Amino acid sequence: DLDIAFAEAFMALQGQFAFCLDATHLQDQLRLLCNQKKWQKLYCADATLRQMAGDYTWHPDLASCDASLTGCEVLVARTGTMVLSSAQPKGRTASVYAPVHICVAYTHQLVPDLADAFEYLQAKYGSRLPSFITFASGPSRTADIEKTLVTGVHGPKEVFCFLVET
Question: Whole-structure pTM over 0.85, yes or no?
Answer without folding.
Answer: yes
